[in-house]
Amino acid sequence: MQQAEDFRAESRALHALISQTAPIRYREPTQFKGWGIHDVLQHLHFWNRMAYLQLADETELTHHLKTMATSGKSMRAYESEALAGLDGVALVAEWQKQFEETADKFASADPKARLKWAGPEMSARSSITARLMETWAHGQEVYDHLGVARRNEDRIGNIVTLGVNTFGWTYATRREKPPGEMPYLVLAAPSGAVWSYGSESDSERIEGLAEEFCQVVTQTRNIADTQLKVTGALAADWMSKAQCFAGPPAQPPAPGERYKKPVATI
């Protein structure tokens, strides 16, 4: 699956950034819930491992999911406990090893294979795409905290597609119905290609950089902090609460809350 290679490439890009960062900075709070790089890596590593187990050991996967659900611990507490305090450069090394193994496992999997998960079953393609999205989204707080301008590639098209496919989910998780058809999207890919989605419309449309659309649907930016051109009431409503990830309804960051710190550009 190409999505497995895209996940690998995005993970490697984040690893290249973190490997240049002094371990003493791993505990500094980022703009996302005060998480540090340490917390980001624990979270990504644990769930990359769980995705790997979807294909490698369903019994162990089920054990973790059931134990987590009944432990009474928060997700972050369970992740940390399950990783037995893994920290620092050792955590970076184990995360790197695991994301390579997970990518290898999914690269040769049947994209349509149905896999168990914490919620409903999902396809193998959906599972690894979710890992790509999580890596990209949580990676954003690392890039922002370190003041590094991210250089995206067209693999973020997977996240755009996820954002499109979860238009209805954004409303369903709020127990609402979409007030109309998904607005027309016209997005500029990192390569300069033009990606369009939905039925062409002049009254309900969103135009701009694909990167900024990804930031909005993953809730790493408030729509007000992007240059996206939003036309129409439905388009504005969607962009005010878009959510491409599972779980209960979440609120986007407030305007100005998430941004790249002016430290460095590489």
Short recap of the structure:
The protein is α+β, with helices and mostly antiparallel strands and 266 residues long. Helix content is 50%, strand content 8%.
Structure overview:
By secondary structure, the chain is an alpha+beta fold. Helices cover 50% and strands 8% of the residues. The chain has 10 helices and 6 strands; from the N terminus they run H-H-H-H-H-E-E-H-H-H-E-E-E-H-E-H. Strands 4-3-5-6 form a 4-stranded mixed beta sheet. A two-stranded antiparallel ribbon has the order 1-2. A hairpin with a 6-residue loop joins strand 1 and strand 2. Helix 1 runs parallel beside helix 6 and helix 7 crosses helix 9. The longest helix is centred in the middle third of the chain and has 23 residues. It starts with a helix and ends in a 25-residue tail after the last helix. The mean pLDDT is 95.
Key features of this structure:
266 residues, alpha+beta, four-stranded mixed sheet, 10 helices, globular, 50% helix
Secondary-structure topology with pairs:
Layout: H1 2-19, H2 37-56, H3 58-70, H4 75-82, H5 88-107, E1 114-115, E2 122-123, H6 124-146, H7 157-165, H8 167-172, E3 184-188, E4 194-197, E5 205-209, H9 210-217, E6 229-231, H10 233-241
Parallel strand pairs: 3-5
Antiparallel strand pairs: 1-2, 3-4, 5-6
